[in-house]
C-alpha cells in the first residue's frame, strides 16, 4: 500500500512559527513532525510515499529528499496554492495508483498502528476516529458497529488518518475542494467503515499544542 502525507496547509494558527518554516517541519521530540509520520510508516512496511506541499514546499523537498535516508521512496505533488484536503488528494491520484491508499494529515500525531487498518471490498473509505478533544467537543461523525455515519451518536472526531479507494473521487475536477463532502456522500451509501483509536492523538493546530506534544515525546519511548 502507498501512503500520502498531507503537507500543503499554510498553518495560519501556528504563526509566527510558520512564517518561515512549513508546518510539517516544525520540531517536536527532537525531529520534524513529518519525520514522525515517515518513521512510523516505514516501520509498518509502507515504503512508497507521496507528499503534497504548497507554502514553503521547497523546504520540505530539501529536508526529505527522495526519502532514501528514511528507508522510503518519496514522490512530491506540488501545489501553487493549497488545494484543500480533497483537491490535494485528487491531484496526487496519478502518483498513488489504482489501489487503495493511506492518507495521514501532516498536522496530527498519533501512536496508531496503521498495520491494523483495512478497507473492505465495496467500501470507499476506512477512517480512524478518536475521542473528541476539548477544542472540538461535538465531533465529526458517528460510529456504530464498525460503520461510520454522518449523523447519529455517539460522535467522534476524525483523526486525519484514513484509507481511501480512488473511486471515492470519481466525478471530481481539478481545483481546491474539501474531503468531507465526499466522505458524507459515501457514508450515505453505506460505504465507509471505521474504528476508534483509543491511544494518544494530537491535533497540532496551535503553538501550545506543539509544545504539549514536545513535552510528551520527551518523556515517552517512541520505539
Automatic annotation (TrEMBL):
UniProt KW keywords: Nucleotidyltransferase, Transferase
Listed InterPro entries: GlmU-like, MurU, NTP_transferase_dom, Nucleotide-diphossugar_trans
Single GO MF descriptor: nucleotidyltransferase activity
Positions of the Nucleotidyl transferase domain: 2-113
Keyword Metal-binding: no
Protein name: MurNAc alpha-1-phosphate uridylyltransferase
Organism: Thiobaca trueperi
Amino acid at each position: 500500500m502507498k501512503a500520502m502525507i498531507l503537507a500543503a496547509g499554510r498553518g495560519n494558527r501556528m504563526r509566527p512559527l510558520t512564517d518561515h518554516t512549513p508546518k510539517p517541519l516544525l520540531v517536536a521530540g527532537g525531529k520534524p513532525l513529518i519525520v514522525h509520520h515517515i518513521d512510523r510508516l516505514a516501520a509498518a512496511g509502507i515504503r512508497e510515499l507521496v507528499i503534497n506541499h504548497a507554502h514553503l514546499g521547497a523546504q520540505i523537498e530539501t529536508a526529505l529528499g527522495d526519502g532514501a535516508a528514511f528507508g522510503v521512496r518519496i514522490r512530491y505533488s506540488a501545489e501553487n496554492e493549497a488545494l484543500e484536503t480533497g483537491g490535494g488528494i485528487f491531484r496526487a491520484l496519478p502518483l498513488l495508483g489504482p489501489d487503495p491508499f493511506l492518507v495521514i494529515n501532516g498536522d496530527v500525531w498519533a501512536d496508531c498502528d496503521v498495520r491494523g487498518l483495512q478497507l473492505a471490498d465495496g467500501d470507499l473509505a476506512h477512517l480512524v476516529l478518536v475521542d473528541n478533544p476539548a477544542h472540538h467537543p461535538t465531533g465529526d461523525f458517528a460510529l456504530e458497529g464498525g460503520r461510520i455515519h454522518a449523523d447519529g451518536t455517539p460522535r467522534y472526531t476524525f483523526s486525519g488518518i484514513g484509507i481511501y479507494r480512488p473511486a471515492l473521487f470519481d466525478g471530481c475536477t481539478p481545483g481546491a475542494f474539501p474531503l468531507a463532502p465526499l466522505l458524507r456522500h459515501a457514508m450515505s451509501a453505506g460505504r465507509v467503515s471505521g474504528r476508534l483509536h483509543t491511544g494518544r492523538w494530537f491535533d497540532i493546530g496551535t503553538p501550545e499544542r506543539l509544545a504539549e506534544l514536545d513535552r510528551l515525546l520527551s518523556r515517552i519511548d517512541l520505539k
